[in-house]
Structure formats: structure tokens, C-alpha cells
Fold these 3 entries.
Entry 1:
Amino acid sequence: MAARTISRTTIVAILVATVAALIARAWLQLRIVAEGVAPQTAADLSYLVVPVVMVILLFPLWRAERSRLSSLFKRSALNLRLVVTAILVGILLRLLWWGQLVFGISFGLYGSSDPLAITGPVFSFQCPSPELVVLSLIVMSVLTPLIEEVTHRGYFLAALQGRGVLQAVVISALIFAVFHRLASIPFTFFAGVVFAVQYLHSRSLWPSLISHCTVNTLILLDWWCLSGHWNPGSEDIPLWLPAVASALLILACLLALYALLRRMATEA
């Protein structure tokens, strides 16, 4: 099994390379921002150094494990049903995020402390220049999911399987969440659990990679193109109608996710 063939030295090497790549990215991002580039564009540009650093540091390891890496992306495991299912999983994960956001706003858990904040809800959709969107798509929808899936599911999760499935899923999801922003850790942990289950059922990185790409693409569209203001006053909270609607949305998404993952397990 893969879990028995991945040594502790390999895991430590991947962790060190990941941290080194992220440190290099943070340093470069600060330099780019200092040159007057917008923060989001600087974040995307600076991420391009991450795969370069990881390839340089991990090239001997990846070269020695060509056959194992190839097995994670077997072409025979890729089919139309898998692609559609994985995209649906990604869409459901993003809908879950929106559901919990609306639920939190309805009870005053989220909101702006600025007394002049727009009460709303007011939303608009307008994307910036195509060049910025394409750059973000390359970084967020391709490079980031690819690197994270190979690292967190292909290595960390696989190496932890010797501890048992439950521990492997939970610990790998925690490691995955820690490498993200503090505010997004709960959602990222849940997404990490879903991606881990996809990998364990399929023994391939295709399902989790496609779902990951889908989630990140939807996040990217929110960041770049969606502008929203909704800060209900304390006198209006709780907002029962959106609270109930969002709770039903969360429940529906969880049930749909369970059904999709269960079907994947059955087919496997």
C-alpha cells in the first residue's frame, strides 16, 4: 500500500519544501507590493515562484517516484461521469460556504463594525481586465490545486493511512487547513475531508483535483467579479427568513455531498 512505502523522511522533505516555497512567495509578494502593484495581483504573481521552488527542492524525490506519481493520475481513471461528479462536489462545497455565510449574517455572526457600512443587501457583478482574471485562473484554478492535491492527498494522506482511515482523513485535513488563512480554516478543513474521501474511494487524484479546481474557480469569481454589501442592523437581527433558507441550503448540500460520495464508494 502507498501508506507503507512513503517514508517519514519523504514527508519531512515535502513539508520543508512547502514551507520554503511559501516563505519565498511571501517575500516576493512584499517586494511586488512595494513596487506599487495591487495586493491581489501581487499575490498571484508571487505564487508563480512556489512551483519553481518545490520542483527545484523535490526534483530528486519526484524523479525517483515517477511511477507512483503517474499512478495518481492514471488516464484510465478519468471519465465523463467522474468529471461531472467532481465538478458537482466542488459546486456543492462553494454553496455550503455561501450557506454558512448567509446563516452567520442572519444571526449577527458576520458583519462590519463600521457604523457607515451599507446595510444592503446590495450586490453587483463586474470583472476586471481579462489579463488579471486569466492570471488568477492559472494560479488559483490550476497551479494551487495541483500542488496542494499532490502534497496533501498524494503524500500526506497516503502516508497517514497506516494509522487508520479516520485518523488519516482528519490529520491530513488539519494539515491542509493550517496552510490556509485563519478565517478559512473551518471550511478548508471540511473541504480537506471531502477531498480525502474522494481520493480514498478512487485511489486517484483526479476527483479531488477537479473538485478543488472547481471550488477555487468559484472563489476566484467571487473575489474578482462579485461586490456585495450586507450589514443588517442589530435591531433587525435575527433575520429568520434568510436563516431558515440558508439552513435548508446547507442541509441540502450536505445530503447531496453524501449521496455523491456514497455513489463514488459504491462504484469503487
Entry 2:
Amino acid sequence: MSVETPAPVVGRSDDVEISVVVPTLNEAENLPHVLPRIPDEYEVILVDGFSTDGTPSIAQALRPDVRILRQRGHGKGDALAAGFQAAQGAIIVTLDADGSAQPEEIPRFVSVLLAGADFAKGSRCLEGGGSADFSFARRAGNRFFSILVNVLFGSRYTDLCYGYNAFWKHCLRHIDIECNGFEIEAFLHIRAIKAGLRIVEVPSFEARRVSGVSKLNVVRDGFRVLWTIVHERFAASDRVNEMDDALASARRY
């Protein structure tokens, strides 16, 4: 593995197209605090999961160029998978719609990729990051899962269950999404390790959601994360354990 220190930037963000995937479920009141802060030159893909509060209409009004996908399945993982498939950019960024993630941090993630990383993974636990919304239960669970994954997979993650990420689109050929819930973050980070991707953690600050109540259930989703870790550790994984020649030739700088 390979959680590394960023190298000097060797590319320019205006040389690559960036797609931002935003999963939503009844986030109409939060979108005004998110979409206007995403740079105009980025492609924005909003994947809506059966909202009843007019979320797609609000998104269209805030950002006329937004691409809106109607989710066919259920869950955050399913929504992200749909957005990844539709993304046209060479770089894909995952951004929550509740106002907790800061769109102004996107260039920080992109610069890490331009410096040579495959996967830029947000961390609230590095110096320069933080959270205004870490309950004791969430913090303890995240800490436990991070240590468990580090022991089982030889990683050095400081924040396993954070959903702010950016990666080169070519990485998707090595990370088949096989989950549909909030365990998606743990799943992506484990698959990235198993695929031998070059991963760099990026300090990130998580604010409180602007409005509404999180759909995350600490107990239920905690068990889903635990099951994902155990399954990924002991399932046959020849297909994702080795980085093949296609990955090396597809890397962009």
C-alpha cells in the first residue's frame, strides 16, 4: 500500500475535465449551500434517490448545466455507482449534498492526483482537517474500523469512513462496486488498497449538515461496514489483488 505523502504537482487542473458526483435524497434545502460553490467548469452529476421535496428542480434552478440522473436502485453506494458510470471527466470527485463537505477543497484533492496519485482520500483526522459533526459513537466506530482495516490490509488509513474522495476514472476498472449502502466508503477504500492504487490522504474539514437529518444509522450501517471489511478480507480476490499492466499504462499525470 501506499498511503503516501503528496509529490510536487506535475500537471494543471485546467488540462483535465473534472466530474463531481452528488448523491441526493431530499436535500432541497441544502443544495443552495453546495451547488453554487462548485466551480462552473466542473461537470456536476446529481443522482437523485426518489426525493419528494423537489430536489431535482432546485438543482436545475441553481445550476442549469447539472446532469440529473434518477436512481434506479436504493442507497448511497448504488447512487455513486450510477454517477461514476455517467461521469465524463478524467477525474471523479464524490461530494455529499448536505453541506458538510466543502467544495472549496476540491482543488486540494485534484492537485494530489496531478502529482501522481491514483486516489485522493479525504481525512478528518489529519492535521489541517477536522469535523464539527463527529459524535462519540461515530468517532469511536470510525477509529475501530480504520485500525481493523490497517491491520487486515496493511494500510495506514486515518479515516476509513469519510466520503470525500477524488480519483482518476481509470481506477474504476479495478474497483467494481458491489454494495449499495453507507458502507460504500469503506468498500472503495479497501478495494483501492487491494488494487494496488497509489493513495494519498488529504486533510478535509467536515461541517454539520445544513438542514435535515442524516440517513446514516450508526448501528445498522456500522454492521454493514464490519461485514464489508470481513468479506473483503476473506473473499477470493485474485481479480483485484494485483495491479495489472493496464493500470500502469492508463495512469495520467
Entry 3:
Amino acid sequence: MGLLLVEDDDAIAAPLCRGLALEAFEVEHVTTGQAAIDRIEDGPPPDAVLLDLGLPDIDGLEVCRRLRERSSVPIIVLTARGEEMDRVVGLELGADDYVVKPFGFRELVARIRAVTRRSGGSGPGEEPTDAVDLGGGLVLDGRARRVTGPDGEVTLTRKEFDLLEFLASDPGATFRREEILQRVWDAHWYGPTKTLDVHVASLRRKLNDPGLVETVRGVGFRLRSPSE
């Protein structure tokens, strides 16, 4: 499995590369945001990108945005910025996960594997779904992993699509927060549940339909039935 590590601090990058190599990852290391962007544009995509935010040339959040514009490769942000707003912005810009330094190596490996397990699949379900009418001119195509609306295709991140597809598996049914996190993120999810709220808010905004994903207070979320 190939990883692209974007980290300018060799004191962090060197031992991380060695440790990941022992876990059978092939790690390519670059030290600037521009090098990461060039690598994604010019070469075959890695299985995941590990992205530091404190880069010397381009802010890591901007690098995340540009990488997501160019590729659907999973992005795991590695950073000392642990404030909630930093997490929210990173996820909004397309990051699939957000790990705050200092972090445990085993935790990082688990997160890499959790993210990449879904990178080539059809989402959280076992089989891709047929086209699902979401109402309001929105259609979800599980086989093509795309959502189209009245104005054309809607660009979603991998996790946003997975979340929408999971909710669309049973429109009108209420899913508990814990169930959504386990099915869409990981069976052993241990991150903040705020991640789910951020992705729901992003879906509502991108689909231009605040009422499509309904909040069931104290329980979880449900996708509005097209008949409503």
C-alpha cells in the first residue's frame, strides 16, 4: 500500500517513514505543499495522503483543498492544530480524517487502514446500490458513486457520499449516531462525534436542501422520504 507523506519536519518524518515501512507501507516523502500537488497531478495516485498543515510554502488546508480538487485519494491530516474549528475546516475541505499531534503510532496505522478500506469500495454497504431518487431532482447512483441534481453533478467527498448512501439505504428510517459512525467511519470509531455533524452540515449545504437530512434530536439522523 502506497502512502504520500507531506511533512517538512524530518524529526517527525524520518521515524514515521521507518515505522510505516515496517508495517508494509510504501512511503513517498515530500516536504512542501507544492511537491504534494505536483505528485498527485503527475503520477499514479497513492492509496492515501498523510498531510501536515504547517508546511513552509502553502498552508496545509489550502493544499488539502487543491488535492481534493484533483483527486479522490483519501487524505489524513496530521497536525498540532487541535482546535475544533481547525478540524471542521479540514473536514469541510475534503480531509477524510484528522489526527492531532502528538499521536500514537498504532492509532495512526489503524486510521490509515480504516480510511483505505473504503477507498476502493462502494461505501459502507456490502453491495453498491442502484440509482436512488432523493427527491428535489437529486439522484444518487451507488455504482458510479455520484450524485446529480438539477444543475448537474454534485461534488462530494468520499465520506460525504458514504454517509448519504448509508442514509439513502432506508429513506425515512432513523439511524442512531453510533450506528452511523460505526458503519460509515469504522467499526471501532473512537474519534469525536462532531465529525458526523460536520459532514451532515456539509451535505445539506452542497445539496442545497437543508431539510434532506433530518436531525432526530437525541437519537441521530434520517434521510427525508422522497414522498414527503
